[in-house]
């Protein structure tokens, strides 16, 4: 009887992992530096090997079949263990380590330390490709499955299967354009704030329902007049620049020259229950002994401390 493993090419597993992450043949081909026809042939080989369609085409790209979802975590675990085994058997050299690392971030705060991290990565580990994306509601499941390596979130309690590192404290402040009617007012009162409409960047994994959002803004003294919520920071900033609206966001945004040169921030210290959060780097316990992940963790923590 033929050994089933004799039919498996390790590159097929890597391709399978990337196809799950990208859900798009063209983007998967670009990540693996192969042509689109070559990636299509690889997908067909996977379908024949696993005797399943694996992905069904839809208007949103490739939709995984139940079989693919069932295999996602085991394949990620296998590739992670193989990577750790290969690296642990030789002296870790970041300059010559080729890998793809995925990181999900809170754009409103994580952008502060990310430029420094990317610069360090470019200089010291040029063969590591970083895939940075906005946080979503499934970031914990993705860390567990291995489709995500790190997440940067504002959360106080974590499950026991996660390893965390505090990056910095953040607190909410009020943003407006430079020539806003309130820009030169030193102490903005609650009554003055209520005269203007508010917007906010929010994240589905923290405030998901309408009632949750009402409670959030009520804690800022705003009971109504909040017509615009978005998960896109750039949309918020462009709207803020073109209108008299006010935005509640992290104070750390002002550390970016792109923000400080175009907007003014005002404190919200008059609020009784001002919420101050800690931004944390999170990874699954499975990767804590990986030399590559240890190195990247150190780079990220150092980059945020420098800001």
Automatic annotation (TrEMBL):
SUPFAM superfamilies: Periplasmic binding protein-like II (SSF53850), Winged helix' DNA-binding domain (SSF46785). It comes from the Bacteria. The keyword Transcription regulation applies. It holds the Pfam family HTH_1. One of its GO terms (molecular function) is DNA binding. Residues 8-65 form the HTH lysR-type domain. Coiled coil: none annotated. InterPro entries: LysR-type_TF, LysR_HTH_N, LysR_subst-bd, WH-like_DNA-bd_sf, WH_DNA-bd_sf. Signal peptide: none annotated. Keywords: DNA-binding, Transcription, Transcription regulation. Belongs to the LysR transcriptional regulatory family. PANTHER family: HTH-TYPE TRANSCRIPTIONAL REGULATOR LEUO-RELATED, TRANSCRIPTIONAL REGULATOR LYSR FAMILY. This is DNA-binding transcriptional LysR family regulator.
């Amino acid at each position: 009887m033929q050994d089933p493993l004799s039919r498996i090419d390790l590159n097929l597993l890597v391709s399978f992992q990337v196809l799950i992450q990208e859900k798009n043949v063209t983007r998967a081909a670009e990540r693996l530096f192969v042509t689109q026809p070559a990636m299509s042939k690889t997908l067909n080989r996977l379908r024949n090997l696993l005797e399943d369609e694996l992905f069904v085409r839809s208007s949103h790209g490739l939709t995984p079949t139940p079989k693919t979802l069932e295999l996602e975590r085991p394949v990620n675990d296998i590739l992670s263990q193989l990577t750790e085994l290969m690296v642990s058997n030789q002296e870790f050299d970041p300059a010559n380590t080729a890998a793809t690392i995925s990181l999900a971030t809170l754009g409103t705060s994580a952008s502060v330390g990310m430029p420094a991290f990317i610069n360090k990565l470019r200089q010291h580990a040029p063969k590591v490709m970083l895939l940075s994306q906005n946080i979503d509601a499934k970031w914990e499941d993705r860390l567990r499955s291995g489709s995500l390596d790190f997440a940067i979130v504002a959360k106080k309690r974590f499950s026991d299967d996660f390893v965390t590192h505090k990056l910095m404290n953040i607190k909410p402040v009020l943003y407006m354009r430079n020539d806003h009617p309130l820009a030169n007012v030193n102490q903005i009162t609650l009554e003055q704030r209520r005269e203007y409409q508010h917007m906010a960047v929010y994240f589905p994994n923290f405030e998901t329902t309408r009632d949750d959002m009402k409670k959030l803004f009520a804690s800022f003294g705003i009971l109504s007049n909040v017509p615009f919520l978005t998960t896109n920071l750039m949309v918020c900033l462009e709207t803020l620049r073109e209108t008299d609206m006010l935005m509640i966001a992290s104070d750390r945004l002002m550390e970016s020259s792109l923000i400080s040169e175009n907007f003014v921030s005002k404190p919200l210290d008059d609020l009784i229950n001002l919420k101050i959060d800690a931004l944390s780097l999170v990874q699954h316990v499975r990767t804590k002994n990986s030399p590559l992940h240890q190195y990247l963790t150190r780079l990220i923590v150092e980059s945020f401390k420098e800001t």
